[in-house]
Design goal:
Shape: globular
Mean pLDDT: 81
Order of helices and strands: HHEEHHHEEEEH
Distance between the termini: 30 Å
Low-confidence stretches: 1-21
Number of helices: 6
Length: 210
């Protein structure tokens, strides 16, 4: 499966047309993979996946991820929170292995070199991390869906997110679709969670950087 991700043309098109975009291009989606193993996970950085590295989790590191889901019986809400923590932990490991541990919060950051991640890098990486968790049978209530894009809304820039759907279990939150966004905070912080409909309005968490 191709792992190239070149969407600069999409950014230009949106700047000109201001159109609403619901998901990345097929070229962007082609970077997602369900063939990764925990000891060899593709990892994007450098804005728009210009650079591709690898993350390798040891048996002990993956055991710690599994414990987030197996230590007790989780509710759907607790399972979502476990996912956000897991993404942060894997991202921290990825940072140490790929030199992106100084990755700052936000998308368009200058003067940080090629080890910065933008929202496309983050959405692809988070989706691939969630895919590992899902394929290990750790998710009871949720399924991974394709990443989504929002265009300029409420003055905010184009932005991407990984997406979860709650497919079973009690839904007290009254939302089935969820944004799982790891770009608003620095490397290693847990991902942020919001109903996808809210995220699409331009939502940014308190203290987060778009």
């Amino acid at each position: 499966m191709s792992k190239s991700l070149l969407i600069s043309g999409m950014f230009l098109l949106l700047a000109v047309t201001g159109c609403n975009v619901t998901k990345p291009s097929e070229k962007a989606l082609s970077h997602l993979s369900t063939s990764y193993d925990v000891d060899e996970v593709g990892y994007c950085y450098g804005h728009g996946c210009q650079h591709k590295g690898l993350v390798s989790l040891s048996e002990g590191q993956w055991l710690e991820i599994q414990k987030l889901f197996k230590a007790k019986e989780l509710s759907p809400a607790e399972e979502r929170q476990a996912i956000t923590v897991a993404i942060g932990r894997i991202e921290a490991i990825a940072g140490q292995q790929n030199g992106t541990d100084k990755d700052k919060a936000g998308t368009f950051i200058s003067d940080v070199g090629d080890r910065q991640l933008d929202c496309i890098d983050e959405a692809v990486n988070a989706s691939n991390f969630i895919s590992l968790i899902e394929r290990d049978g750790l998710l009871k209530y949720h399924a991974l869906r394709e990443p989504m894009l929002r265009s300029w809304v409420n003055g905010n820039i184009l932005h991407a997110t990984a997406v979860l759907e709650q497919v079973t279990g009690n839904n007290s939150a009254k939302s089935n679709m969820w944004s799982v966004d790891s770009s608003f905070f620095k490397n290693g912080e847990k991902a942020t969670l919001s109903p996808l409909e809210q995220w699409q309005t331009g939502w940014v968490p308190e203290g987060g950087v778009n």
